[in-house]
Amino acid sequence: MPARFAPLDPDRLSDQQRVVVDEVRRGRRGTVPANVVAWLPSPELARRAAALGEFVRYETGLPPRWSELAILVVARHWSCDYEWAVHAGEALRAGLEPEILDAVGRGVAVPALVGLDAVVHAFARELVMTGRVSDARYDDAIEALGEPVVVDLIALVGYYTLVAFTLNAREVPAPDGAPRLPAIG
For residue 1, is pLDDT > 70? Predict the structure, then answer.
């Protein structure tokens, strides 16, 4: 059985794939992440999904701290090693404390979360765990964050769920030396 995922090989790209790779490299990321490489067999999907990813990660009303917190909730829920490996470091750079990363990673209560961090975490966690958000959780988020940011948060959780599914189904390994997803509990 062939490997489900192969790293980017510029010499093996079709013309359509090359256009997508060049477009993504010119974007905010400056590089082509593994999820985009995993989508390249479908170049139009790769192009559109990469554009959505750039938007939800960098251009919404969510500050990086909240985006990274929500992404880690998704990575933990779907046990996505690659997603965790990339975003644990990003979360620390965005100001999340190591004890918060550890608790999210182990899937346990996060007592250090307060205020808006707690609102974002609870919303993202309930959404990935149930596929829905209760009226109380939704109302709390709307009051605390405002409707535009809540919609951005929903889209971010959905996008990174797509990324986790892609990375897990294509068996994309976490980068060597990157932080590993902790064991649950």
Answer: no
